[in-house]
Amino acid sequence: RSILRSRWFRVVISAALRAQDLGLDHMAWLFADATRVFFWLTRNSVEWPAVAAAAVAAARRCGGLRERAIALFSLGVAHMCSAGYRASIQAYLEALPLVREAGWADAEAACLANLGVLHLELGENRLAGQEFGSVVELYRELDMPAQEALHLASLASVHLRAGKLEQAASYSAASAAKFGEIDVPAIAVVAQV
Length: 193
Hints:
mainly alpha
């Protein structure tokens, strides 16, 4: 049976929205955050934006930097899954200074990576390239080679879409080499294509 049709999931969604209506902001945020992974897994773009917006409102009233950033990140993903790219960009741009202030580097990289994907989808290659370049640097600093390799491939995609074949090939080769260093041969082959 689908997660989205299960009774307990419906109850958690209702609890998140009702808690926000009652001004129980911390509970509203917790309930809404509990739904985030299930919305992500199912890509439910119908209810997710409303629940994520309730989480953002609640987190703004009661949450710390991380709670607000998580809620905004969820809202960004919800809009991205429903092709609301500009609204998604706005949510990520609002989350970005929060994660930076919190010193949460991997969340900063995730925000920038999603911004890169959105800008690439919108044909804004220059912005996508800047964001993916920042992501590569962050993951390098965090010593996260698989993520670094993945986003080197993202840079290859940016250059490929821009018709810059030499740069695309260079980033693709760098991605394949990085994946090869961490012994991920299947992904290394895909990155070479």
